[in-house]
Amino acid sequence: MYESEIASAAAALSGAEAGEFTALAGAAEAELAARLRDGVTEESVKAEFIAGAAFLALSLCSAAAESGGASSWRAGNMSVTRRTGGAVQSASALRQEAEALMAPYLRDGGFAFSGVEG
Predict the structure, then answer these.
(1) Which of 10, 13, 45, 112 could form a disulfide with 57 if both were Cys (CB 3.0 to 4.6 A apart)?
(2) In terms of Cα–Cα distance, which of 59, 56, 52 is closest to 102?
(3) Are 46 and 2 spatial neighbours (Cβ–Cβ below 8 Å)?
(4) 111 beta partners
(5) What is the pLDDT of residue 86?
(6) Helices 3-14 and 22-35: crossing angle, nearest 10°?
(7) So what's the pLDDT on residue 90?
(8) pLDDT tens, 25-79?
(9) Pairwise CA distance, residues 99 & 56, whole Å
């Protein structure tokens, strides 16, 4: 539904071309859409949804680059190079950013302790 807008947002964040993120944008959109709370739609939180999915698409790209220990990764005209010193955020940090942005709208998948009287 918002694949092209998500790809454009990811491209703006990374400096790459939007076309390089089309497949990743679709995957990120599907993942977030499946986790929305009851009563929340992609349309009702459009700006947050697009931004969260863009961060998630970047995390997917970064994870692909990090798998196998590669120091650089290329897909079409886009390349990702891992640098030391924190110059490039890790896939985990990008995913956490997406999760934080979308937290109010996602079903809680976390673990919680509950008190039981007895």
Answers:
(1) 10
(2) 52
(3) yes
(4) none
(5) 41
(6) 110
(7) 78
(8) 999 999 999 999 999 999 999 999 999 999 999 988 877 665 555 566 666 666 6
(9) 8
